[in-house]
Amino acid sequence: MRLRKTHLKRVLRVFGQLNDLDLRSWIDKDSKTQHSPLPTQSNLVNAISTLEDLKRELNDLGDSDHSAGMELIAECWQGLSNRRDTVVMLKSFVDFSELIVECDLSFSRLLDKLDELPVGKRDEGVGEPRIRAFKVLTRLREASTSINQDPRIKYQIKRLNQTWEELCEMIKDCSESSSELPYRQTQNPQNSRIPVYSRSGLKSRSLMDLENSISSLNTPLPSKSSKRSMPPSLGGRMTFNLSPVTDSP
């Protein structure tokens, strides 16, 4: 009897932790204005780690011979599965944030290249960095598809599109100019460089590792009529195509 009570207390504790775990708030808490910060990789790591801990606890409870709280355990598995969808969305924000950094860096490299080349060779000299920058911008636009209603995403898309248009105008002006000076020396000397944001140093878990962890959280739900609370095998887990962000070449 004492063991059954202990087992039920553990089930109730996991159930309470799942109910208290509002992962959506990690996405929404700073989304009121377009300048608010985006979720970080640290948020994603913490979310996955928390759900992994709860999953291990549920697996351990399922290995027990006690039947106490079986329906409650089934609800816990369902709650775990529901929160996995939020983790997938959280990762979309983190991927987008990484691409913002790549975009700013590629734009900065393109601007630096404009300063290095003689005026007469602007078009041919900036070809490669221009293509790279456009590819990163295209990836960023595609990555925003599922989250583009967030004001922070809208702002970054607008900012980077405008910056890209300005860079294209610079390239056009340089190719038509007869000045021998670097491009920015022919403009207002108070003009500022395109801002470049530092990449986060948090690399304790790779994005591929995080994807694998997210996939592992998709555990089949146990049958309520089962005598054991471990989820039965349903012939494999669902997989999601979550392409990791890689550094631009």
TrEMBL record:
Ranges of compositional bias, category Low complexity: 220-234
Comp. bias intervals (Polar residues): 179-193, 240-249
The organism's place on the tree of life at top rank: Eukaryota
Span list, region Disordered: 179-198, 208-249
Protein name, entry field: Uncharacterized protein
Organism: Phakopsora pachyrhizi (Asian soybean rust disease fungus)
